[in-house]
Amino acid sequence: MDFGINFFPVLPPERKSAQDYYREVISLSRHAERLGFEHVQTVEHHGTPYGGYCPDPVTLLAAVAARTDRIRITTGAVILAFDHPLKAAGRLAMLDNLSGGRLDVGFGRAFLPDEFDLFDVPIEQSRARFAEGVEACRRLWTEQDVEWKGTFHRFGPVTVLPRPVQQPCPPIFVASASSAESCAAAGRSGHHLQVVPSLTTRQQLREMLDAYRDARARAGHRGAGRIQLKYTCYLAEDRDDALAAARVFEQNYTALMADAIASWKSARSDQYPGYEAMIDKVRRYDFDASLAAGKFLAGTPDDVAGRLAADRQELGADLTVSLQFNPGWTDAGRAAHGMDLFAGHVVPALGGGVRDGLLYA
């Protein structure tokens, strides 16, 4: 196992200003690099407190790259349905250069009907726009004089500048919420995978990873591929303290997510089967059941190590775990202390340590 950190700003502006949040992201990213975390990543969302502080992950990650030297810089994820692939490919290649070749590119489809409405993009085009955009970016990075005649975009011939530092291109990750079909498609294409266990059942998660690994192997791609699991992590020496924080910020997350997905009450799309039931599922959220099901990590270092050891045994040792230590309006000092506890106690409890400057278990 490798370990990284992620940032998902789910908080209203009255709780913490955007300026303060960005300063804390940069400070915590530098601290993560000192401790040996493998990557720092952030999301893309628009127009609501559910992630709205990060409408462009490239901008925030460029600031992180300027203040760090080794840690990898990861988008988790860029939404190509809301962008032109020529512009996205150039902006991401620029970030790869600014970071000295440290970029991992995560692409996602988006899932909030209101965001599709904001950009005047039909949600029914979600999967097709995603597939076309990812392939267009890959070709723009790996080829010259690219001429593209797709369903949604036509351009070229053009050679995108700057050229990416990493050759043939930065590693490409596909973000999947709950679809084994999407995971299999990522495997067939030879891409890597980003998954959020809080959005799935344990059985669904196993099926998603199995589908990805099987499809990648059947397609003949070398290596196992990289799989990132994203968890929110509440760590403290005292279990009650950790669980009290978890209860506050998990409830904050579900409340703001419920607002963000409210349009699924009336929206329907064959691109997102079953999503109309999501609002009721979120409103029925049960903290204790979610903790028991491993939807997030909370407790003492021994508690968290035990949960991750179970993941390693059940889901495979080839995982990268991406951890959010500052959910909601968590104090930056508390988040940094959680990172210290993870590096200093959780990783050793898993039989790991630091190798070549990176945490492993």
Automatic annotation (TrEMBL):
InterPro entries given for it? Bact_Lucif_Oxidored, Luciferase-like_dom, Luciferase-like_sf
Q: Which Pfam families match?
A: Bac_luciferase
Luciferase-like domain location is 1-318
Q: Which domain of life is it from?
A: Bacteria
User: PANTHER family, per this entry?
Assistant: LUCIFERASE-LIKE MONOOXYGENASE
According to UniProt, the name of this protein is LLM class flavin-dependent oxidoreductase
